[in-house]
């Protein structure tokens, strides 16, 4: 299974998410994002347009994952180095990143790709 992990600001648009995903050039089976962002209208609309399920990742699961990318600001706010990487990895068993965090052109969304077995 291939999962796109997303981190994004409240002001992100569907274009922000699309741009970040396009930068990975990946064909994904699902989207993973923090549980507190999963109900965002923008994310739900994006997921529906791409016919992808949204996997809600709890804060503890994100914080338990070691990410290659380490942002001090994100670590202070979320307890992980990269929201996108942590979500992608936490959504799967035996996961490995195939694409580290990329940032949309408008800098409002990040995306990382992981491959592994469904939980």
Quick tags:
single chain, 119 residues, alpha/beta, Nucleotidyltransferase, domain 5, five-stranded mixed beta sheet, 5 helices, 34% helix, globular
Give your account of this protein's structure.
- This protein has helices at residues 14-24, 41-49, 59-63, 72-78, 83-90, and strands at residues 2-8, 30-34, 54-57, 92-103, 109-118.
- The protein is α/β, with parallel strands linked by helices and 119 residues long.
- The protein has a single domain (2-118), classed as CobE/GbiG C-terminal domain (Nucleotidyltransferase, domain 5).
- It has a five-stranded mixed sheet.
- Helix 1 (14-24) links the parallel strand 1 (2-8) and strand 2 (30-34).
- The protein is globular.
Which helices and strands, and how do they pair?
Layout: E1 2-8, H1 14-24, E2 30-34, H2 41-49, E3 54-57, H3 59-63, H4 72-78, H5 83-90, E4 92-103, E5 109-118
| Main sheet overview | 5 strands, mixed
Q: Spell the H/E element sequence.
A: EHEHEHHHEE
Domains, number? 1
DSSP strand tally: 5
The CATH topology assignment is: Nucleotidyltransferase, domain 5
- CATH superfamily descriptor: CobE/GbiG C-terminal domain
What best-fitting shape do the alpha-carbon axes yield?
globular
Radius of gyration from the CA trace? 12 Å
Distance between the termini: 10 Å
* Unreliable residue runs: none
Strand order of the largest sheet: 3-2-1-5-4
| CATH secondary-structure class | Alpha Beta
Q: Provide the residue-averaged pLDDT.
A: 97
Q: Classify the beta-strand content into a percent band.
A: 25-35%
